[in-house]
Amino acid sequence: MNEIKVPFHRAAITEDEENAVLDVLKSGWLTTGKYALEFEQKFSEIVSTDKKVISLAVNSNTSGMILAMEACGVKKGTCVITTPYTFVSTAACARHLNADVLFADIEKDSYNIDPDKIEEILKKDVEHKVKAIVPVHIAGNICKMDKIIELAKKYSTIDNHIYVIEDAAHAFPCPTKLGYAGTIGDFGVFSFYVTKTITTAEGGMVCTKDEALAKRMTIMRLHGMDRTTWDRYTSPKASWEYDIVAPGYKFNIPDVLAAIGVCQVKRAFLFDEQRKNVVKKYNEAFSKTDFIQLPPDSEGNSWHLYLMRIIPEKLKINRDEFAKILQSKGLGISVHFIPIFHFSYWKELYKSFTKENYPNCETQYSRTISIPLFPDMTQEMIDIVIDTIIKTGLENHA
């Protein structure tokens, strides 16, 4: 096994996180409680602008996505529109609710869903089955939310409101003129998986400005119960008195994880600055080559990932070969993302779901390598990444 000189990611964990977890363990209350409530409050304080955002901590982005879809009526006989260029859970959440998924290709020059392709689908939806549009802010680069929201309004009817659910797993903190990513549509769903811009090891947050939608998600988050566990054991009302009003889920986040989030969210903007410092150095170095295309950028980009694109015409090797060489030289790398139409389940489910129908997805996928990017990268690590990539390109130049 080759020695890893620079890992793909390393979480920025300090004594603050360690002490917070110890405090929870010593408190005797390990499940959802005061730390989860504090985490939600601090998150809302950051992303709220013109109107208060209600934030609900959950055990994953996937859980938050299911809650959001369920709250807006995604079920059997309905559809959601999303992109094939995402992690599979974005689409799988709709399938968990027995709904269908309609896929729109990404823009030619970015990794984000193309609003024009969304409209092509909506024009054909004469039966008004589309309940939600799910744009994904790939790598923290913000989708064209103004156009997407306009389309949702344009094609909503009296009998069928089309909701916008932002998959903001990569997009925190992302301030834009429309508000923070994840608060622009009807819902925003964030991820705190270990590689994300802040982490709770595993976890997520689902946000909305709509109190009725928030209430539904709160109930469904914990077994369809009309009282939270924290309320049951801290209020004067008898803890065993509650009602089950719906067949809910088990999606709550425990305080052990939320305590990490409380510490991490305080340093979110510091992490953001540190990532952008790395990105600046990458861009300066790679812009001097003729075999690397720099990643797309936009207002508010959180730079969760650095999606380095090779220019195949300038090289004697393809993306897979390039990536394997980088791995052999000790770089932790990945590929974001394998388009969903490459997976057997989805190919079997939708026979027309092929790479020929999504050419922009396939092109970007065939050229992209995700390279190390995390807040605690040292100058030595940055230099190793840059030197290794440039040397590999020059050694295999066409």
Give a written overview of the molecule.
The longest helix is centred in the last third of the chain and has 19 residues, at 268-286. It is globular, with a radius of gyration of 22 Å. It is 39% helix and 12% strand. The strands form three sheets. The protein has a seven-stranded mixed β-sheet with strand order 1-9-8-5-4-2-3, sandwiched between helices. Strands 10-11-12 form a three-stranded antiparallel β-sheet. A two-stranded antiparallel ribbon has the order 6-7. The chain is built from 14 helices and twelve strands. α3 crosses α7 (211-221).
Brief sketch in words of this structure:
This protein is an alpha/beta fold. It contains 14 helices and 12 strands. A hairpin with a 2-residue loop joins strand 6 and strand 7.
> pLDDT under 50 segments (min length 5)?
none
The helix fraction, in percent, is: 25-40%
Q: Into which percentage range does the β-strand content fall?
A: 5-15%
Strand order of the largest sheet: 1-9-8-5-4-2-3
